[in-house]
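pinned: reference chain
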Amino acid sequence: MEGYLEKCDPLDWRRFLIAVKRLADSLSYGTDASPFLGAGIEYVQSRPYQWGDPVRAIDWRVTARASKVYIKEYEAPKRMPCYLLVDTSASMTISSAVPSKYALAVYLAGGLAYACLERISPVGVVAVGGRPLVVRPSLSRERILQWLYQLRHFRYDEPTTLGQRIGELAASLFHRVLVIVLSDMHDRDGLPALKRLAQLHDVAVLQLRDPAERGLRGCGFLRAREAETARTFVTHGRRQQLDQEALQRDLRRAGIDHLLLDTDKPLVVKVRQFFATRNLLGRGAR
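pinned: its structure tokens
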């Protein structure tokens, strides 16, 4: 069965893009696009002034010592490519409340992609589910629109392939990249793969959690079915499927930045503070 995050009429698509761009503006707030200021701009040398050089680039210390006007030269900024790994599996799409984990993952992926472009960072996407969606990093806004539109379509029967896709991605990387995972982390192979990836690359995990995953109060014992494998099991309403404390501890030990987001709580401020305090989007400047 195929469903949609939104009805695919032009009005809803336009509203979705407006919300995504507002999120990107929020994540980019406070960054400085000046070629002479900001993180990642490294001083190289000073050279004699030439006609047409900007006054703001004058190196006043060297000028005072040499009695001639000198200009500061900076290394051209190079940004680390960013990969967004979006979990498209069934456990993301089935939810107990609106919005679903998957809807928020696509929303966050769009906002992060546009925020990367604001910092001149190429951005790509990999779907970690059943669909073969892999887009290499680029600075094309049109390409972002294309994969965002594809991600707005989803299925309820996709398996989790987080560990497998991370292994495939790692084998194709020849330079250091930033990898941002948007998933509920239900794949048992995901954590070991992330630990290996974090040894060579910068990794951050935005974990999405449904209210039901925190526990079903007052329901006692119940029979449930796993969304992706259709496996039935008996559990208790207070029991959590995922050992959250162990997961957070393992991610921290591996040097992986982690943020837990509940779908029934405001998340924009938390995401903005998370990226700002860790300088994740600006970490790749060199």
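why pinned: The chain has two domains: 2-31+79-278, 43-74. Residues 129 and 161 are 5 Å apart (CA to CA).
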